[in-house]
């Protein structure tokens, strides 16, 4: 049955195919439009460059009035990504707006990779290294990038 | 837990052990579920005096309920989900317009043109259309019903269907945001802190479930070209409910009851 959430997700998918943003991709899983797989490519000129990071996006029937749950499946080392892959990003929590779509979500996460916010850490080690020891931070991120090829 | 534990860095931080955001969200969802199971999005008409039962033994509130009952006969409760102002305001506006074909038609025309205004302001056309289409679809459905009572029944049904009802709220939130941004020089005086009007709109107006303040009401009124009278009932001194007309000096056509952080609809 078509619900507003499902109808909207079809539109989101159509737009993502017709007008794909650079460096991200996403699609519903084969048998369930409420669960998507996505990939974000590490942005150029950042330690995440060349990485291919996989994510899952889970929607509820309340989408787009409520944000989906987005999680990295690939192992990440980033100040705003929890150990379980959960992402601490304002637009996925209290600053969600129904005018965002999947494309906007993925590009926001992509820019979070370039510009971490170490003041609101989900991974305090990554936040600390990012602030105090950038070289070590980049080393740890590069390890994730290499692991992302194998995952 | 955490990422590789052999480092010398301070490992006493708690935030690595659990995903706090998700725990908070889960609890919020549970509370919302309880509210949504017990209170309809927009309720049936009931006498204003029904408020008394909520305040037995509370002299200040009971005196104010009496005062309110002298001014208004009935009310409709709305679900306290942070969208109550927008939902109550849209519902009450449409309910009244259904009794006046001419006014309804000019409201309809205003609505039809609103998409272009939003696109010009930089709203993303693709996501905007989803809400606009639903909003117009509802207005069309109502316009097609000749009998006023039937149309009002349909309005009530539509506003209690979560999908439609929430989309109506989203669209009014977008129109309100547009109004604020169009007149940002004026509204910026009402915004505290360093935020720009656009920031304020993205954070406090467009997201669902965010409570409304004076500034939201002022902008929503001018977006729908409608005057509203708000009756304030709180623990303040005195036996009467205070009232404010927005915009000031207007002839209000929508009447709302405000109790701390919640709006319901009032009927003379």
UniProtKB/TrEMBL annotation, chain A:
Domain annotation UBC core: ranges: 4-150
InterPro entries recorded: Ub_conjugating_enzyme, UBC, UBQ-conjugating_AS, UBQ-conjugating_enzyme/RWD
Catalytic residues (UniProt): 88
GO aspect biological process, one term: proteasome-mediated ubiquitin-dependent protein catabolic process
Keyword match Nucleotide-binding: yes
Keywords: ATP-binding, Nucleotide-binding, Transferase, Ubl conjugation pathway
Enzyme Commission no: 2.3.2.23
Name of one Pfam family that matches: UQ_con
GO cellular component, one term: HULC complex
UniProt keyword annotation of RNA-binding present: no
GO molecular function: ATP binding; ubiquitin conjugating enzyme activity
Superkingdom assignment: Eukaryota
Family assignment from sequence similarity: Belongs to the ubiquitin-conjugating enzyme family.
Protein name (record): E2 ubiquitin-conjugating enzyme
UniProtKB/TrEMBL annotation, chain B:
UniProt-listed InterPro entries: OTU_dom, Otubain, Papain-like_cys_pep_sf, Peptidase_C65_otubain, Peptidase_C65_otubain_sub1, Peptidase_C65_otubain_sub2
One GO BP annotation of this record: proteolysis
Keyword Protease: yes
Domain OTU: 73-268
Family of this protein: Belongs to the peptidase C65 family.
Lineage, uppermost ranks: Eukaryota, Metazoa, Ecdysozoa, Arthropoda, Hexapoda
Gene Ontology molecular-function annotations: cysteine-type deubiquitinase activity; ubiquitin binding
Reactions catalysed: Thiol-dependent hydrolysis of ester, thioester, amide, peptide and isopeptide bonds formed by the C-terminal Gly of ubiquitin (a 76-residue protein attached to proteins as an intracellular targeting signal)
Active site positions, chain numbering: 81, 84 (nucleophile), 262
Enzyme Commission code: 3.4.19.12
Organism field: Ceutorhynchus assimilis (cabbage seed weevil)
GO cellular component, one term: nucleus
Highest taxon of source: Eukaryota
Gene3D superfamilies: Peptidase C65 Otubain, subdomain 1, Peptidase C65 Otubain, subdomain 2
Protein keywords: Hydrolase, Protease, Thiol protease, Ubl conjugation pathway
Lyase in keyword set: no
Protein name, as recorded: Ubiquitin thioesterase
Interacts with free ubiquitin (site feature) positions: 232, 234, 258, 263
Top-level enzyme category: hydrolase
One Pfam family hit: Peptidase_C65
């Amino acid at each position: 049955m078509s619900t507003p959430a499902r109808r909207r997700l079809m539109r989101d998918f159509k737009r993502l195919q017709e007008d794909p943003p650079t460096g991200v991709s996403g699609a519903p899983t084969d048998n369930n439009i409420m669960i998507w797989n996505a990939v974000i490519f590490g942005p150029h000129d950042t330690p995440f460059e060349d990485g291919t990071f996989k994510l899952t996006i889970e929607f509820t029937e309340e989408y787009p009035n409520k944000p989906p749950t987005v999680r990295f499946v690939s192992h990440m080392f980033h100040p705003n990504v929890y150990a379980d892959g959960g992402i601490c990003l304002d637009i996925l929590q209290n600053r969600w707006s129904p005018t965002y779509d999947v494309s906007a979500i993925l590009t926001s996460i992509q820019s979070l990779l370039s510009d971490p916010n170490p003041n609101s850490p989900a991974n305090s080690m990554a936040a600390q290294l990012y602030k105090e020891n950038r070289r070590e931070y980049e080393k740890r991120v590069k390890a994730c990038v290499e692991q992302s090829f194998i995952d | 837990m955490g990422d590789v534990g052999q480092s010398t860095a301070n490992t006493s931080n708690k935030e690595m052990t659990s995903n706090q955001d998700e725990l908070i969200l889960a609890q919020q969802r549970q509370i919302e579920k309880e509210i949504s199971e017990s209170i309809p999005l927009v309720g049936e008409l009931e006498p204003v005096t029904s408020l008394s039962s909520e305040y037995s033994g509370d002299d200040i509130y009971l005196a104010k309920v009496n005062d309110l009952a002298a001014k208004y006969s009935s009310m409709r409760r709305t679900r306290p989900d942070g969208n109550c102002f927008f939902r109550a305001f849209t519902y009450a506006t449409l309910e009244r317009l259904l009794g006046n074909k001419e006014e309804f038609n000019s409201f309809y025309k205003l609505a039809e043109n609103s998409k272009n205004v939003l696109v010009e302001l930089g709203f993303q056309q693709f996501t905007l259309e989803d809400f606009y289409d639903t909003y117009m679809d509802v207005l069309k459905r109502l316009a097609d019903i000749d009998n006023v009572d039937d149309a009002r029944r349909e309005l009530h049904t539509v506003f209690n269907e979560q999908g439609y009802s929430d989309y109506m709220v989203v669209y009014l939130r977008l129109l309100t945001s547009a109004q604020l941004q169009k007149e940002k020089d004026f509204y910026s005086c009402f915004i505290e802190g360093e935020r720009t009007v656009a920031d304020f709109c993205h954070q406090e107006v467009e997201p669902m479930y965010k409570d409304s303040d004076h500034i939201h009401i002022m902008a929503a009124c001018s977006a729908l070209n409608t005057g509203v009278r708000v009756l304030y009932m709180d623990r303040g001194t005195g036996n009467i409910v205070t009232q404010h007309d927005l915009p000031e000096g207007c002839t209000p056509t929508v009447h709302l009851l405000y109790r701390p952080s919640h709006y319901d609809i009032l009927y003379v």
